[in-house]
Amino acid sequence: MTSSSTWITLCIALVTLYVARCVVDDRRTKSKYKDVVFVGPTGTFGTPIGFLQLLFGTRDFIQEGFEKHYGRLFAIPTLFQMTFVISGPELIDDVRRASDDQLSLYGSIKEGMQTDFTMEPHILENPYHFKFVHLSLTSNLGGRYPEIHEEVIAAFSELIPPTEGWTTFPAWFTGKHVVLRVVNRLFVGPPLCNNPDYNDINDAYSDALVKTALVMGFTPGLLKPIVSTFLDSYIPKTLRRAMEHIGPLVEERLEKERLLGKDWPGKPNDLLTWLMEKAPQGDRSLKAITIRLLATMFAAYRPASMALTQALFDLATFSSYISELRDEIEPIVKEEGLTKESINKMYKLDSFIKESLRLRAAGKSSMPRKVLKDFTFSNGTTILAGSTIIAPGYAIHHDARHYPNPNEFDGFRFSRLREEQDDPVRHQMVSVGPTFIMFGNGRHACPGRFLVSALLKTMLAHVLMTYDIKLEQEGVRPADKWYTFTPAPNQTAGLMFRKRAT
Ligand code: HEM
């Protein structure tokens, strides 16, 4: 056979296997769950047809299920099997209260990111690097705020030098690089945080992870080890490049420790130090440290840079908010400067960013959990081990029951609620609950959200005080791009800046 006919035969075999697997799973699932509604095409080939409709965006099963069956569990077709969607505050609260050995976030990340093939097989058995985000960053945010502020100013003035006339800058590229640089200041410190090659590696590694995970997700289990050897050569190559940067830094810090003692003056309190000192003994090799650094950056920088880019697009689109935001920010900065405490007082700015997150950042599928033990919800429905549960993030954040005029950008929606209810905590960006699950909910709620809030508020406050900003085409907000369940800001559009005209 010629090589092209071999490929065609292989493809036909794989598609046949896939369809057969879906059909069997579909029948098995429907016979097991008598009290769960199935949304999507019925019949023998329901799952593969439904998956194709999902892939090409011709139907939105999650939204359909949310509207018709609010408060219940419903099932939708996804790649290989039915996925269960929870809706309504009670069921979301059931997930929040479930233990990790019943409903597992890491189990779903392992499957979604195919970590056995893209990272390290044991990385999610002990994700201590995630805990270090909380210990090294969140609980130390006040102490590290001056570095955040300094890096924000440096990053913006390098990427967007203020000019008298309007100049266009690529929005996504700029947002991404500001966030990479500032977050790396907290992960590895200067000067590496501003090394373009190191920041590009972080970006490229995340990109390679997503693409490889996608292909591996499509590959049947038995073929995964073979397919992965063809696919992931880019990941080890990128990892090696990262190790070339981290290696000398680790050596330099160890040398200082040898010469000046364990608590040498100026010793950084960053993620790298935590990984070098607090990772389990067998996990302190250069490779292990570098993988954990890159894996944490993967969790951190993509959602944060998307949020920054979207908030900048919103600032330029809804420019009538600019003067009121400046009126809030300027007296505070004049009085106290930009500090961790002073940004906490900027609740209109907090509201503006939270509204941008609510409207733009919620994926259709949120809070994924792998069911490790059969789990019974408070309404009596039992989901069997091996299944996957998700929450309908986009639908929840666009639900008129909780957000009047849900599709409208109302930048002061949350600050008005704060004033009306005289409640300074409940409506801020970092507060999670069943109707705002942008950062998840419960034990696994994003530990980086306090940092994200500080970063985004500092960045927007800096932009508002330093620049004027507008869209390239007046009145035309660059359209978002959807990757099946996940939204992303427009990645090619520009934004126009000039030095603020006072
Ligand atoms: C706008 C930016 C961000 C968004 C929208 C976001 C959202 C989320 C969500 C939805 C989860 C899963 C929660 C759940 O399923 O219950 C999560 C987990 C996590 N996020 Fe974030 N995140 C952001 C930024 C960051 C940053 C900057 C960091 C680190 C500095 C970070 C570190 C983490 C970690 C370590 C976890 C895993 C938590 C665990 O182990 O339980 N995130 N994030």
TrEMBL record:
Gene3D superfamilies: Cytochrome P450
Co-factor(s): heme
Name of the molecule in the record: Cytochrome P450
Signal peptide stretch: 1-22
Binding-site residues for heme, renumbered to this chain: C446
Annotated organism of origin: Lentinula raphanica
Entry similarity comment: Belongs to the cytochrome P450 family.
Oxidoreductase recorded as keyword: yes
One matching Pfam family: p450
GO molecular function ontology, one term from the record: iron ion binding
Keywords: Heme, Iron, Metal-binding, Monooxygenase, Oxidoreductase, Signal
Keyword presence, Iron: yes
InterPro entries linked: Cyt_P450, Cyt_P450_CS, Cyt_P450_E_grp-IV, Cyt_P450_sf
